[in-house]
Amino acid sequence: MRTPLPRTDLDLRSRRRRRWLAAGGILAGIGLIMLYALRSPSPVGHFTSAASQDRFLAAYDRAMADMPRPDRTLDLRTSYGVVRVYHFAGADPAAVPLLLLPGRVSASPVWADNMPALLGVRGLYTIDLLGEPGMSIQSRPITSAEDHARWLHEVLLALPESEVHLFGMSIGGWTAINLAVRQPEKIASVIVLDPIMTFNNLSVEAIVRTIPASVRWFPKAWRDGFASWTANGAPVEDVPVAVMIEAGMQAYALKLSAPVRITEEQLTALDIPVLAIIAGASRMHDSAEGAETARRLLEPGEVKVYPDASHAINGEHPGEIAADISGFLGRIEQ
């Protein structure tokens, strides 16, 4: 049994996690280049060796220690592989749960800073995205936006609740909207946290900076430099979730189609309530342009801009995010 850390140490670790890109938006644009930089014969995502997988799994377990203990762990079979899902009981067991989708090259532990406040709102599911480093196991190629939507739709169908609220950060936000515009069954609402390729394109600088971060055999410092850049210069700390993400970047060969920009026609046709929370200082895209597009096209929809937030917004503003989500859900569920 681990000896509990003093409160000051816990606070320090929390602040360090927030400064790090644990948001899971850490490498939001990496998939646009990694498909070409890391070609291999396998058509599905995989760990490059048993040793590298062992290293990642050890880091994953250590990062999960910062999460609450799930009351259920599910491995749900889909047409594209087995998807790992965790359930956490919340303050209101009768409320429609939130299903949390992390960013690229990350997994469920990136939500550690958000869990206490969100669990005060309602029950939660977290998911390890299929085809990403984590506990989900891809078995069939995912080569289109339709494929991305299909496997997640099958996950929702396997859950016992009649509907869920989707909450995705970075590429997880794109994944949620991509499903909603194609197969909206069982989706009560969608909440997106600084999503990429949803309301506008990635910035040119973001795409260029992914190149050195996308190659496993390049120095770690190059990937750390990109991580710090996406967090607007915040230092990269050696904390459990950071170790997990670094292990995944080095150990896992990603085999996914790049996210295709959600069209204005698709957004206009979407009749599910959407809350878009935009990081006003995000370097991944033009935040003002994205917020304007979201306000213009989302109906019904709400748009919030956090002016000083970087793409690591989830770790920077966990309490404010939970409060905005609680208010949004209260309004649409009246």
From TrEMBL:
UniProt keyword list: Hydrolase, Membrane, Transmembrane, Transmembrane helix
A GO term for molecular function: hydrolase activity
Domain AB hydrolase-1 residue range list: 98-323
Pfam family, one: Abhydrolase_6
Keyword rRNA-binding: no
Transmembrane segment boundaries: 20-38
SUPFAM superfamilies documented for this protein: alpha/beta-Hydrolases
Superkingdom, taxonomy of origin: Bacteria
GO cellular component, one term: membrane
Record-given protein name: Alpha/beta hydrolase
Naturally occurring in which organism (per UniProt): Cystobacter ferrugineus
